[in-house]
C-alpha cells in the first residue's frame, strides 16, 4: 500500500460493506466529525448515526450511512464497526420515514424509560438517515 493512502474497512453485523484504500476518511464521531488521513495517531472512538465519506486515491468519493458503532484508527488502517451500515445506493427513504413515524408514535404514547430510550435512538437514526439522503440529492443534483 502506498504511503499516501490508508486502508479502510467498514463492517456491520450484516457483513463487510467496504474494504479498500483511501487518501482521506470522514467519520461522524460522537465528539464531532473526524477527518482521517494516512499516519493518523491511533484512536478509539464511538460513532453516531450519520455519513461516512471515503475519498479514494483516484479522487472518487464513496458515501455510506452508519447507524452508530465504534471506530478504530491506526496509522495505516481505519476500521468502522457499525451497528448498521448501508451503501449510499441502498438507503431507502420510505423505510427511514416509516421508522421515524414509528418512533414518534411510540414517544407520543405512554412508554417506560427503556422503550423511550429505544424510541429516541430510533428517531435519531431515522433523522440522520433522512439528512444523509438530502445531502446525497444535493451532490447528485
Please write out the topology.
Layout lengths: L5 E7 L2 E8 L1 E6 L2 E5 L6 E13 L5 E14 L2 E6 L2 E3 L5 H16 L4 H28 L1
Parallel strand pairs: 1-7
Antiparallel strand pairs: 1-2, 3-4, 3-5, 5-6, 6-7, 6-8
Helix pairs in contact: 1-2
Assigned CATH architecture of the largest domain: Sandwich
The low-confidence runs, each spanning 5 or more residues with pLDDT under 50, are: none
CATH superfamily caption of the largest domain: F0F1 ATP synthase delta/epsilon subunit, N-terminal
Output the helix-strand order.
EEEEEEEEHH
Shape: globular
Query: What is the radius of gyration computed over CA atoms, rounded to a whole number of angstroms?
Result: 16 Å
Walk me through this protein's architecture.
This protein is an alpha+beta fold and 141 residues long. It has two domains: 6-88, ATP Synthase, domain 1 (Sandwich); 92-140, Single alpha-helices involved in coiled-coils or other helix-helix interfaces. It contains two helices and eight strands. The protein has helices spanning 93-108, 113-140; strands at 6-12, 15-22, 24-29, 32-36, 43-55, 61-74, 77-82, 85-87. Strands 1, 2, 3, 4, 5, 6, 7 and 8 form an eight-stranded mixed beta sheet that branches. Helix 1 (93-108) runs antiparallel to helix 2 (113-140). It is globular. The model has no long low-confidence stretch (mean pLDDT 89).
Features:
ATP Synthase, domain 1; alpha+beta; 2 helices; 8 strands; globular; 8-stranded mixed sheet; 2 domains; Single alpha-helices involved in coiled-coils or other helix-helix interfaces; 141 residues; 31% helix
